[in-house]
């Protein structure tokens, strides 16, 4: 049944589950690659699915401006529009309220249209309607994300406004099989995180996101805030940590009971010539990779590592950097999927402790990636 979330295995607070979307069931923990404008830049949606990803994230704010929700609806919804054969989720635009410096008041947010400079109004109800038309399996409520560090009264006011907007979004939502997730805010103030989690949970959503983190605070503060929210949120619903893809944070958040993640980083750093490998980050343009006949990552089974060498990719860095972005994007997504698979296996075999120690060795903020 759509919306059903069954937990199949646990190791400590970590869980392995199945979430039933209207397009089909997906396994958690899961990572969502980001197709901001309905495209994962340089990588076709079906290739993303071939790597094993089951949910693709797109952004309501961007789709609202271009191509517009009606145009997506006319093509049968987001999944048909961009050709991703599995689950879809749309973020609401709360992150853009912050990152694009939008103005907001009680009624909603006002953005500058990045394409023509005109003003665009987005209300909690408008975000629900836009996401209904776009037609993803999961819709997020509109919230106010706060850039950190920020004064406590500002974080508190934005967190309280996010709760009032969540109530309005819940009232505006039609029961059409599309799941609706609420978003916990509160910055790194643990008391605020807890009260926000309580109030959002009280409204009652199909799932709960933890938003407004990894926006300038330390990794320790991020994980403390995640732990505080997870301790309050209902344990029988999926939990989604927004905007986090870093192997260290992601793995530890799984250990704290988070089920879903998204981040642009695997493809973005790929476009900047950086590969994620079992021994850390690797800048492929470095002269020492010329004439290196090994694959990017010897433990990776992705199409790139199966076919071409570091030498070839180093050559691309000079000869065709755009194509290099495609190759590294594919590999980095495969790496991220591999990380998720390792976490799932660790939960199933109750070896999360060993898995987290291995992650610490390479990815803790103090560890140095050998490839740099
Ligand atoms: Zn690879």
What does this structure look like?
It is globular, with a radius of gyration of 20 Å. The chain has 372 residues and is an alpha/beta fold. It has helices spanning 45-50, 60-65, 69-74, 78-82, 94-99, 124-134, 152-172, 190-203, 219-232, 247-255, 265-271, 303-307, 310-319, 321-348, 352-363, and strands at 5-11, 14-21, 24-28, 30-33, 55-59, 87-91, 103-104, 109-112, 119-122, 138-140, 179-184, 207-210, 239-241, 260-263, 274-277, 280-283. An eight-stranded parallel β-sheet has the order 4-14-13-12-11-10-6-5. It folds into two domains: 29-263, Alpha-Beta Barrel (TIM Barrel); 273-363, no CATH class. Zinc ion binds at residues 296-297, 300, 302, 304-305, 331, 334.
Which hetero compounds are present in the coordinates? Answer: zinc ion
The neighbouring-strand order within the major sheet is 4-14-13-12-11-10-6-5
Largest sheet: 8 strands, parallel
CATH superfamily of the largest domain: Queuine tRNA-ribosyltransferase-like
Number of domains: 2
Overall spatial form: globular
Instruction: Please bin the fraction of helical residues.
Output: 40-55%
CATH topology of the largest domain: TIM Barrel
The second-level CATH architecture of the largest domain is Alpha-Beta Barrel
**Strand segment tally:** 16
Number of H- or I-type helical stretches: 15
**What does the oligomeric state look like here?**
single chain
Q: Strand share of the residues?
A: 15-25%
């Amino acid at each position: 049944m759509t919306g059903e979330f069954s937990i199949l295995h646990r190791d400590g607070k970590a869980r392995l589950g199945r979430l039933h979307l209207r397009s089909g069931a997906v396994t958690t923990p899961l990572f969502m690659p980001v197709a901001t404008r309905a495209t994962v830049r340089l990588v076709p949606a079906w290739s993303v699915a071939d790597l094993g990803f089951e949910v693709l994230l797109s952004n309501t704010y961007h789709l609202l401006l271009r191509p517009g929700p009606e145009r997506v609806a006319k093509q049968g919804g987001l999944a048909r529009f961009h050709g991703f054969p599995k689950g879809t989720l749309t973020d609401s635009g709360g992150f853009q309220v912050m990152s694009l410096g939008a103005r907001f008041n009680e009624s909603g947010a006002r953005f500058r249209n990045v394409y023509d400079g005109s003003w665009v109004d987005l209300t909690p109800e408008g975000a629900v309607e836009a996401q209904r038309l776009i037609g993803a399996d999961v819709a997020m409520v509109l919230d106010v994300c706060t850039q950190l560090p920020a004064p406590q009264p500002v974080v508190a006011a934005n967190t309280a406004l996010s709760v009032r907007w969540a109530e309005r979004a819940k009232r505006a939502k039609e029961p059409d099989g599309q799941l609706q997730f609420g978003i916990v805010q509160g910055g790194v103030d643990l008391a605020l995180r807890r009260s926000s989690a309580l109030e959002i949970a009280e409204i009652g959503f199909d799932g709960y996101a933890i938003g407004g983190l990894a926006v300038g605070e330390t990794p320790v503060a991020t994980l403390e805030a995640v732990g505080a929210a997870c301790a309050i949120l209902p344990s029988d619903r999926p939990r989604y940590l927004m905007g986090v893809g870093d192997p260290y944070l992601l793995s530890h958040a799984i250990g704290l009971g988070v089920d879903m993640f998204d981040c642009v980083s695997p493809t973005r750093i790929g476009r900047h010539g950086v590969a994620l490998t079992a021994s850390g980050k690797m800048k492929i343009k470095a002269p020492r990779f010329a004439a290196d006949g090994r694959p990017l990552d010897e433990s990776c089974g992705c199409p790139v590592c199966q076919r071409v060498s570091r030498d070839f990719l180093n050559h691309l860095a000079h000869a065709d950097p755009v194509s290099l972005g495609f190759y590294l994007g594919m590999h980095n997504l495969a790496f991220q999927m591999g990380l998720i698979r390792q976490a799932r296996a660790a939960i199933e075999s109750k070896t999360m402790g060993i898995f987290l120690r291995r992650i610490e060795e390479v990815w803790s903020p103090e560890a140095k990636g050998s490839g740099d």
